[in-house]
Amino acid sequence: MYKDFDFSNMPVVDAVNEIIIESVEHGASDIHFDPTDEYLKVRIRVDGVLDTFTVIPNDLKQNIITRIKLLSGMNITETRLPQDGAIKTVLKNHNLDLRVSSLPTKKGEKIVIRILDYSMSLKGIEYLYFSETNYKKVLKMISVPNGIILVTGATGSGKSTTVYSFLQRLNVEGVNIVTVEDPVEMDIKGINQVQVNSDIGLDFATVLRSILRQDPNIIMIGEIRDSETARIAVRASITGHLVLSTIHTNNSLNTIERLLDMDVERYLLASALEGIISQTLARKLCDKCKKLRPTTNYEKQLFKKALNLDVNQLYAPTGCPQCNRGYRGRVALQEVLPINQDIRDAISAGVRKDELRKLVYTKDVITLLNDGLYKVLAGFTTLEEVLKLVDIDDSIDIAKDSQKIINNKPNELINPNDFIDTNNNTNNNNNNNNQQNNINDSIAQIKMTLANKQEENKATNLTPNLDNNKTNLTPTLEQQQNNNNNNNNPNTLESGFNMQDSFVNMNTIK
Ligand SMILES: [Zn+2]
């Protein structure tokens, strides 16, 4: 994606504009301006990977940095202290919301521009790449009237997108949904969102106590970070509220441990916890250029050991003008754990972690590794990506015990249609931003409103592609129920939600 700009024949204003616009069109989430001895290096982050985009001659360095600081409302005479700023503008039909920060390094000021895309909207649970089994578990989980559902994962794993999708599904007339967030990442119509403001003492716990006096049905807590929030969340859920939140852990088992470490009473947690969804984001193979290749011995053994499948070929990245080295967008890997009575009893009784592990990872649970391996077989991503994200030594024993969700024959690759995935077939998305600005979804339209200092909201860039006119985007409840009753063959759902029909073209998670 490297590009040579003719900076010497370009006004500074144009140079900055061009860099921003081209980055946006590449689907970047961040632009870095790194001062070095030789030049000002510009790097952009696309699908989570930071790559050099261009270099600016050092004699233009100061003008470029000053221009960006000016645009973002920073003090241009201050170069020794870090500053924050923002740019809101329309450039070449791109409605831009940029968060800018400067950091004084030894080589000069480093600028990072975070790109928030106002045109995106959240499309719903069907677009999150849940396997059919997990999708059904999730729908069942969020249909309970009270309890806690936690979405867990590292920073930048797309937790917020998942929670917002759940809220979107639950957001109907007759339900009072209140959120407490830091920051509020997207505006959701029909939902009461509260921004934490610690400067004036408005913290999660304070807001939560007030929310409980506001006759809520559903409460969303942006993140459970401390003991007090955890305890109020649990108490709220056992007094008849559905509580959704995120927590920074890497799998279901660790989430339970973490909550207990936060001094949540065992018997309360055992009764309150309804489900845990652990997730991470892998880069998605470009559909235009991915190619089958034979598997190595190691890969054969891995698939045999983890899934008991003989796999002789896998998709590999190639690289074409429409992607970044064979990848484009991202795909979520998930582990969905509904809390059953055995797990409740174990939490309540305080059993050891290894005992709890046996109860959590029964044959009914598709582990993060298994889900990843199935998505490799389906050609969504590569084994390399999955192995970067999932600790295989830790997971392989669990994976072995875990149930095979898709009864595919040896030597056959899994059909991508076996996943509740509607993000497939990304192509010709580069010129969609104009169209995106016109999107006015009847589905809850969710916009990014505030910069998230963490990488997490990179995962919220779900941008639809308008050249698909399929209307069956969100199955009706009736269709979902039909779907639930019809789980024997994921390829041939006879009624209701037909996955083939529901495939739509979308840009995937950035
Ligand atoms: Zn490609």
What would you note in describing this structure?
The chain is α/β, with parallel strands linked by helices. Helix content is 31%, strand content 25%. The strands form six sheets. It has a seven-stranded mixed β-sheet with strand order 11-9-12-13-8-14-17, with helices on both faces. A six-stranded antiparallel β-sheet has the order 3-2-1-6-5-4. Strands 7-18 form a two-stranded antiparallel ribbon. The chain is globular, with a radius of gyration of 23 Å.
Give the end-to-end Cα distance, rounded to a whole number of Å: 16 Å
Share of residues in strands: 25-35%
User: In total, how many beta strands?
Assistant: 21
Largest sheet: 7 strands, mixed
Strand order of the largest sheet: 11-9-12-13-8-14-17
Arithmetic mean of pLDDT? 80
Helix content: 25-40%
